[in-house]
Amino acid sequence: SIYTLNLSISPTYVTLSEDEVCNGETYIWRGNSYTVAGTYHDSLLTQSGCDSVFVLNLRVNPTYAFNENQSICSGQSYTWHGNTYTAGGTYTATYTTGNGCDSIYTLNLTVNPTYAFNENHEICQGSSYAWHGNTYTTTGTYTKHYTTIHGCDSIYTLNLTVRPAY
């Protein structure tokens, strides 16, 4: 007896994919969501019952966030990432990395006050006026400079007038 075997060999298929996303993004592949780097597999059967394998190599590229706290005195300015600021607030600058992901810089700027105090006083000729550790006997404008705990000016001005005695 003679037996004849007609054998057909059906191929198997392997499909390799490589892709990347930025940190915080979701990658959808073959009906599934991925947020973590790794190698993922899926398989199907061909019409002839052989495996058809799909492989995904997923990279997750980093994003960057930088925070900076700065302070200036009233009347000053602060230059940051090409912009000049004079008001307190939160400012952002966004850049794109070489792999297309965000790089976000945040500036928290505080504007500390400066102080100016003006005093007008009169004395009679022959009298003296004690002010901020000094004694004055002549008409004039006198100033005393102090610095606040934030390094800003605190300026006191005395306008002293000496009236003649009659």
What this model shows, in words?
The protein is mainly β. 0% of the residues lie in helices and 63% in strands. The chain contains no helices and 15 strands. It has strands spanning 13-22, 27-29, 32-34, 38-45, 51-61, 64-73, 78-80, 83-85, 89-96, 102-112, 115-124, 129-131, 134-136, 140-147, 153-163. The strands form six sheets. The chain has a three-stranded mixed β-sheet, with no helix packed on it. A hairpin with a 2-residue loop joins β2 and β3. It is rod-shaped, with a radius of gyration of 39 Å.
- What integer value in Å does the Rg equal? 39 Å
Largest sheet: 3 strands, mixed
Class by SSE composition: mainly beta
The outline comes out as rod-shaped
Mean pLDDT, all residues: 93
The proportion of strand residues reads over 45%
Number of helices: 0
Give the strand order, joined by hyphens, for the main sheet: 1-5-4
* Helical fraction: under 10%
- Distance between the first and last residues' Cα: 153 Å
**How many strands appear in the DSSP assignment?**
15
Oligomer type: single chain
Strand-helix topology:
Blueprint (H helix, E strand, L loop, with lengths): L12 E10 L4 E3 L2 E3 L3 E8 L5 E11 L2 E10 L4 E3 L2 E3 L3 E8 L5 E11 L2 E10 L4 E3 L2 E3 L3 E8 L5 E11 L3
Parallel strand pairs: 1-5, 6-10, 11-15
Antiparallel strand pairs: 2-3, 4-5, 7-8, 9-10, 12-13, 14-15
TL;DR of this structure?
The protein is an all-beta fold.
Task: Considering the chains and any ligands shown, give keywords for the structure.
three-stranded mixed β-sheet, 166 residues, 15 strands, mainly beta, 63% strand
